[in-house]
Amino acid sequence: MMDNLGYYIFVLVAVIVAFLVVKKVTTCLVKSVVLIALIVILAAVYYLYFM
């Protein structure tokens, strides 16, 4: 259970940091594409390693 909690905390921090970096650097369209790609990558990692 603690392994999963650490993973969720890591993913949450990664999403927040990625969102802040993308918000500062890019335009709205590119920001949307990057966030969608990040969500897809995180979902794939979760599916491949935790299912």
Assembly level = single chain
Strand percentage lies at: under 5%
What's the number of extended β-strand segments? Answer: 0
The H-and-E topology, N to C, reads as HH
Helix percentage range: over 70%
Instruction: Give the structural class.
Output: mainly alpha
Spans where pLDDT lies below 50 across 5 or more residues: none
| Number of helices, where a helix is a run of at least 4 consecutive DSSP H or I residues | 2
> What best-fitting shape do the alpha-carbon axes yield?
flat
The largest sheet, given as strand count, sense and whether it forms a barrel, is: none
Average pLDDT rating: 80
**What's the alpha carbon Rg, rounded to whole Å?**
13 Å
Terminus-to-terminus distance:
14 Å
Question: What topology does this entry show?
Answer:
Elements: H1 2-25, H2 28-50
Helix pairs in contact: 1-2
Write up what this structure looks like:
This protein has 51 residues and is mainly alpha-helical. Helix content is 92%, strand content 0%. It contains two helices and no strands. The chain has helices at residues 2-25, 28-50. Helix 1 packs antiparallel against helix 2 (28-50). It is flat, with a radius of gyration of 13 Å. The model has no long low-confidence stretch (mean pLDDT 80).
